[in-house]
Amino acid sequence: MDLTQGTIEEKNKRAKKMMLWFGIASLIMGFAGWTSAYIVSSKREDWVSDLELPQAFFISTLVIALSSLTYILAKRSVSRNSQKQATLFLLVTLALGATFIILQFKGFSQMLANGYYFTGPTSNIKMSYVFLIAAVHIVHLVAGIISLLVVLVQQMRGKYVKGNMLGLELGATFWHFLDFLWVYLILFMYFVK
Fold it and tell me: Residues 74-89: pLDDT tens digits?
């Protein structure tokens, strides 16, 4: 397909989707760098391999997976012209996103209660990476929540209808990426000792 062909609207849609994918690719490279550094650092003599991740991180994983499902249901509801249902699913997605962040901070509290710190004399390199990777993911999830709020406002204004859901689709793509990214990160940190 020739990307230079089509109406201005089609070109605009393609450009917005391409920009989103460029952004996602750059995030993948950033997290690939941190997880690579994690692997390299795991060979250090002071690496502590028997540390357990906080339980709140695993619960938050279920919450964020559920949020992807509610975003999918919101999109399907718009396609079926069930606007109130779509708005409800977006609100549930927002609540699940906020719950994820709360659980992440609870996980940080659990690590601190166990004597693991990001820096300082009682810190260790492994937990510093866990704090860093989880915190950077939270920052990106906050961006996802801002995106979701924009989508929610547009949905409440009646902007999205079947065949005209670009903002909803872009928001959903970014949200699903963040969800899959967290699942990868939690599995990575669990299995790479």
Answer: 999 999 999 999 999 9
**d(C-alpha 59, C-alpha 41), whole Å:** 27
User: Is residue 53 within 8 Å of 130, Cβ to Cβ?
Assistant: yes
Domains of the chain (ranges, CATH numbers): 8-43+54-191 (1.20.120.80)
Can you give the pLDDT at residue 4? 60
Whole-angstrom distance, CA of residue 27 vs CA of residue 79: 30
Helix (H, G, I), strand (E, B) or coil at 89: helix
CA distance 97 to 106: 14
Asked if 111 contacts 54 with a C-beta cutoff of 8 angstroms, the reply is yes
Burial of 83 (0-12, 13-18, 19+ CB in 10 A): middle
Report the alpha-carbon distance of residue 143 to residue 178 in Å, rounded.
Answer: 10
